[in-house]
Design goal:
two-stranded antiparallel sheet
């Protein structure tokens, strides 16, 4: 009988830990919470740029996080931004506010999935439209080491694809030749029809509850030939809670 009570007691002590590990709630952030990341941007096989970026919470509401970001050590003014309560990013797409990136979806549970999908008309002069479809999944616990130290994180991965329609291109060619009556100019205009191009994307985020944000992120984009064109990597260098 005593053995049975001991086993039940052990189960009752273990159960809350298992529930916490299997379901992670959104972080409770405070004004002044600060993270510093080393960010590396790689363009193609050769070009790359690295910076040290500081993120500071200004205030929070039930739906949003107001924060500022600037390069660490710079005297330039910080850029003030708004994110969703899950650190999602939204912007104006075709006249309406649209979520374009959602690395986290609380509560985080292993196997949970969600999708971010949108199409934008005339995003730049090269493309008449761009479509992105990212499918996220909570993979599970994984250890990760970054400049700030080694952490037991919850890994979230996303795979997807992008499609773009090139904008119509109009080109003109011309020439001139002399005749007895003078000079004649001939011009010819050609219009290239729009074409569709496609590619793939991959994203990964290592979220650590005690830091209130991910400690590492990777975002990669691939062209239609399967070759990586861009990679964005962020690794946590330091973090500080305002209450500390």
């Amino acid at each position: 009988m005593k053995t049975t009570r001991t086993i039940l007691l052990l189960i009752s002590l273990i159960t809350p830990t298992l529930v916490y590990a299997d379901s992670v709630a959104a972080p409770k952030l405070s004004e002044g919470d600060t993270w510093t990341y080393v960010t590396t941007i790689e363009n193609g096989p050769n070009g790359w740029h690295q910076s040290h970026d500081e993120i500071v919470v200004l205030r929070t509401t039930s739906d949003h996080i107001y924060f500022e970001t600037k390069e660490a050590g710079t005297t330039q003014a910080a850029k003030e931004l708004i994110a969703g309560a899950d650190w999602s990013r939204s912007r104006n797409v075709n006249g309406s506010e649209t979520t374009v990136n959602r690395p986290l979806s609380f509560p985080l549970t292993v196997g949970k999935t969600w999708e971010v999908k949108y199409t934008e008309a005339h995003p730049n002069v090269q493309h008449a439209s761009e479509s992105f479809d990212s499918r996220f999944k909570v993979v599970g616990p994984e250890s990760v080491e970054v400049p700030a130290g080694k952490f037991d994180a919850i890994k979230v991965e996303a795979e997807g694809d992008w499609t773009a329609e090139t904008a119509p291109i109009q080109s003109a060619t011309g020439g001139a030749f002399a005749t007895q009556g003078g000079t004649t100019v001939i011009a010819q205009t050609r219009r290239a029809a729009p074409t569709a191009v496609t590619g793939r994307l991959y994203k990964a985020f290592w979220y650590v509850p005690e830091t209130g944000r991910w400690v590492k992120s990777v975002e990669e984009y691939y062209g239609s030939n399967g070759v990586r064109t861009q990679r964005f990597t962020s690794e946590l260098e330091s973090f500080k809670h305002a209450t500390q």
